[in-house]
Amino acid sequence: MATKPPHFDPNAFTDTMKESAQQIWLAGLGAFSKAQQEGGKAFETLVKNGIDLQRKTQETAETKLHEATQKMSGIAQELNQKATGQWDKLETIFEDRVAKALHKMGVPSAEQLTSLLERIEALEQQLSAAQTSKRKTSSEPKTNASPGGDAS
Predict the structure, then answer these.
(1) pLDDT of 88
(2) CA distance to 4, 6, 7, 98, per residue, from 1 (Å)
(3) Could you give the CA distance from residue 12 to residue 22 in angstroms, rounded to a whole number?
(4) Which of 7, 12, 32, 96 is least surrounded by Cβ atoms within 10 Å, i.e. has the fewest?
(5) What's the rounded Cα separation, in Å, for the pair 93 and 86?
(6) CB atoms within 10 A of CB 105
(7) What is the mean pLDDT of each run of 10 residues along the chain (152 residues)?
(8) What is the pLDDT of residue 152?
(9) CA 63 to mean position of chain CA atoms
(10) What is the b/e burial string over 14-30, where b = at least 16 CB atoms within 10 angstroms of the residue's CB?
C-alpha cells in the first residue's frame, strides 16, 4: 500500500512561519525588557559590592599602615638607643684621651685641683690663727724691766 504524502499548503506554511516569527520576536522583546529591569538591579548590586570591597580594602590598608608605623617607630627607638649608647662610649673615649693629654702636659686633674684648694683653705686658716695669736701677744703690757731702768 502506498501512502499519499500530506498535502502541502504554501499559505498555511507561510502563516505558521509568520506566527513563529512573531512569537520569536515577542520572546526577544520580553527578554530585552526583563534584562533592562534586572539590569538596573544588577547594576545596583555591583555598585553595592564595589562599595563594600572599597571599604574593606581601605580598612586593610589603614591597618597595614598603622602596623608599619608602629614597626618603624620601634626601629627608630632602637636605633636611637644604640646611637645614644655609641655616643656615650665616644664621649668617654674622648674624655679619657683629653685627660691623658692634659696629664702629659702637666695640667692637674680636677681631683688634684680640689685637693689643692682644700689645702690652701687649711693653710689660710692656720695663718689667720697665727696672726690673731701674734696680735694678742704684742698688745699685752710687758711686766719685765722698765726702759728707764732704776736698778738700786
Answers:
(1) 86
(2) 10, 15, 18, 136
(3) 15
(4) 7
(5) 11
(6) 7
(7) 64 81 87 79 83 93 92 91 85 89 86 92 92 78 54 46
(8) 43
(9) 17
(10) eeeeeeeeeeeeeeeee
